[in-house]
Design goal:
The protein has one domain. The chain contains 4 helices and no strands. The chain starts with a helix and ends with a helix.
């Protein structure tokens, strides 16, 4: 995973984009929480699974979005 992150960061540097951890002074987690509104329910469910959030199978989309923000 670290190799992928470095590769993405290198590609952004070649394009002249700042790495996401420096965008508008926010961290990656804060930027990710902001984008969760644009994610599908399946993407939110996957992210909560990656974060080991319990009870996600019975959560609504809004609850999943809130759980991602809280876990981040």
């Amino acid at each position: 995973m670290e190799v992928l992150c470095r590769s993405v960061d290198a590609a952004r540097e070649r394009r002249g984009e700042p790495p996401p951890r420096e965008i508008e002074g926010r961290t990656i987690v804060e930027a990710g929480a902001r984008r969760s509104a644009d994610m599908t329910k399946a993407e939110l469910a996957k992210r909560t699974a990656d974060m080991h959030v319990k009870g996600r199978s019975t959560m609504t989309r809004d609850e999943l979005e809130r759980a991602v923000a809280e876990a981040a």
